[in-house]
Design brief:
30% helix; single chain; alpha/beta; 423 residues; 15 helices
Length: 423
């Protein structure tokens, strides 16, 4: 299989509107005429020119029988009507007029009635995919549940960016199905498998066990899938590349370009990093990406400071469980499974992803690096969560810049660019 339509912008430039329009028309224009189409899109925690892409996609699908856009939330909080309109860049008046034929939906992951079971991934399959990372904590068979709307249309169109990703290696593609519009079952298993493997052995690697598990689940989806995979220019937020085709080949092409554009290789590890989480990350559940993308570039004993003075919430959905489990290295949970195994696997995965690699021996936890929050989350809460605290008002950001030679990294917009040390 090959990518049906694609464009890659020269380094330092972005694709213009006419080029994006041409690729979308070439890739999906006539293919979906007369079809009922569901378009899967990300929420506000991903950088991309979604208002432009929304308008051009609606234009390219003008002859579709019906058209709906669904935010592939995974377990993120649902967006309000106002937030949905802001996400796709239209006004309430435009929704009632120009775009009255287009539905805007949230994935209703907490509603069992909104989900349909389309198959099962057996324990043996999970074990085979996991390989050496297999652990009994992954459990038994995994039900493959998907939002019903994906089964009630003629075609699925996935429209989303590809970045290095802590759980799956590179984001995008079929990840918009699992976990994007799936149930918590698949979310928990995939995220915990990623945690067992660890970020250091996952992030920025295209073909990972978690990606393989997601693709196995996608193979069970009966609705035809087209992918419009985006590679975003980190500096401008415009598109550096656009690939339209089947979800495997288009994603692989985008992941290859993302590896070129979104990974910064350094010659030696840093001892400290100030990693600024932008306002689009409005809870620690997502702002933790400001740590994930930095850990591979930090020396043992180093420190990453997640600087987000706007942030006051650990997680709207998962906060209670996170406060129970705290943030700890993987083996802290595994070796105390009787205590922590009752918590959702996805929460434990988040807990060890943010705390990073380390050991737990004879009741003593030793994390490879220190993780410090400079946020509105209180010192007491940071201590309870086993994270460091720093007052964000005490930072002179200018004093952190230009100190790479001293082993200090300053990242002005963290979360999507991966830093790694050359081997």
């Amino acid at each position: 299989m090959t990518v049906k339509a694609q464009r890659i912008a020269p380094v330092g430039t972005i694709l213009n509107e006419d080029t994006i329009r041409a690729v979308l028309h070439e890739g999906i224009g006539n293919t979906l005429d007369g079809a009922r189409v569901l378009v899967l899109i990300p929420d506000h925690t991903r950088t991309l020119p979604l208002p432009l892409l929304f308008r051009l996609t609606v234009e390219a699908l003008a002859d579709a029988r019906s058209l709906a856009f669904m935010v592939a939330l995974g377990t993120h909080p649902a967006l309000s009507e106002e937030s949905l309109l802001r996400l796709v860049g239209i006004t309430a008046e435009e929704r009632a007029t120009t775009y009255r034929h287009v539905e805007l939906l949230n994935h209703d992951w907490e509603n069992p009635g909104a989900l349909a079971t389309i198959g099962t991934i057996s324990r043996d399959e999970v074990q085979a995919v996991a390989g050496d990372a297999w652990h009994e904590s992954l459990g038994g068979d995994v039900a493959i549940r998907l939002n019903r709307r994906a089964l009630e249309v003629d075609h699925l169109l996935i429209l989303g960016p590809v970045f290095p990703h802590e759980v799956v290696g590179f984001s995008g593609g079929a990840k918009y199905l699992f976990p994007g519009i799936s149930s918590a079952d698949m979310i928990n298993v995939t995220h915990w498998l990623g945690a067992l493997i660890t970020i250091l052995d996952t992030i920025g690697i295209a073909e990972t066990p978690v990606r393989a598990l997601i693709h196995r689940a996608a193979d069970r989806v009966p609705t035809p899938i087209i992918l419009a995979a985006l590679v975003v220019d980190s500096k401008t937020g415009g598109l550096a590349g656009l690939f339209v085709g089947d979800h495997l080949t288009a994603w692989r092409a985008a992941a290859a370009l993302s590896a070129e554009r979104h990974i910064v290789w350094v010659d030696r590890p840093f001892t400290r990093a100030l990693s600024i989480a932008p306002p689009m990350y409005d809870e620690l559940w997502t702002a933790a990406k400001a740590m994930y993308k930095i850990e591979p570039a930090l020396a043992d004993g180093g420190e990453v400071i997640v600087y987000a003075p706007h942030l006051d919430t650990v997680s709207i959905v998962h906060g209670a469980h996170i406060y129970e489990g705290g943030y700890h290295v993987r083996d802290f949970y595994l070796k105390q499974w009787a205590t922590y195994g009752r918590l959702p696997l996805g929460v434990l995965a988040h807990g060890t992803h943010l705390r990073g690699s380390g050991t737990y021996e004879q009741g003593v936890e030793r994390a490879r690096i220190q993780v410090t929050l400079a946020t509105k989350i209180s010192p007491a809460d940071c201590e309870r969560l086993s994270l460091g605290y720093a007052d964000p008002a005490s930072f002179d950001l200018a004093a952190w810049q230009g100190r790479e030679a001293e082993g200090v990294l300053f990242v002005p917009k963290a979360g999507e660019t991966l830093y790694r040390v050359r081997v």
